[in-house]
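Morning - phosphoric acid mono(formamide)ester inputs below, output right after.
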Amino acid sequence: MKHLLSTRDVDREQALRLLDTALEFSEVAARSVPKLPTLRGVTMVNLFLEDSTRTRLSFEAAAKRLSADVMTFQAQGSSVSKGESLQDTAQTVEAMGADIMVVRHSTVGAARDLAHSGAVATPVINAGDGVNEHPTQALLDAATLRSTFWDSPRARDLSGLRVVIVGDIAHSRVARSNVSLLTTLGAEVTVAGPAGLMPEDVSSWPATAITDFDDALGTDPDAVMMLRVQKERMAPGNPGELDDYIEGFCLTEERADRLPADSVVMHPGPMNRGVEIASAVADSDRSVVLDQVRNGVSVRMAVLYEVWGDRS
Ligand code: CP
């Protein structure tokens, strides 16, 4: 795997190999000195042209645990404000010694276009491109499900696991990457959201699409993945719509109480508490939100290790 651009490019064997490698790397975190020499002398650059807390810091932590050097670029305060393109920016940081580029951008296909442009020779990892894909988020979600259900025979490879993804499906790169990766791994995926927040092409997705959250909860899911309502990607709307959203799609304590006893609640973050998820649920024993964050570091270590090993 020279680049990681989309979960649609990852087959089942590659996905399980990445998850196995991530599991091995997760043991490094427990050491008194959580560091391996694997990427000593390699420089990773975080090229983030969209805001991030988890993904950017997690890639930085992953690179440092593998002894790589890290350059961090943030659009704010950079020459992007003078109109410099992603391609010119990437060539500039490559000329300064970047060996691996982690790219977040608001444009769909930005990371893929850069990887295939010939402008840079480095591996490119997509850290989120608009509403399209967020492949390392899907991998860390799969790693979290795997570790949560490790003792269940059907869950070590995630085949047969029932996952419901809920909310603003239309604007969610997390939903797109998860549907693709989870179904590659054999999970049964349902996407649930209001009709107005469903993508037009949802009927072609390898998932069941429904517009009633309570019906989705009736499928006895092993995991419910709540999505952030992405107000920044929506046209300004009627404030009443938010009240309707909360009524129909917030994971309240009452709804969480209807879940099977061992099912878990996920959220990629950042959370809008009280909108898509009640605080009491986000902080409950069912919540694996911080496990997702923890697994993000080891999954990104595995991705960096894989792309660096496969560079040509
Ligand atoms: N889940 C996620 O992508 O979070 P950030 O936007 O904080 O990176």
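Note: Residues 52-55, 128, 134, 137, 268-270 surround phosphoric acid mono(formamide)ester (CB under 6 Å).

O.
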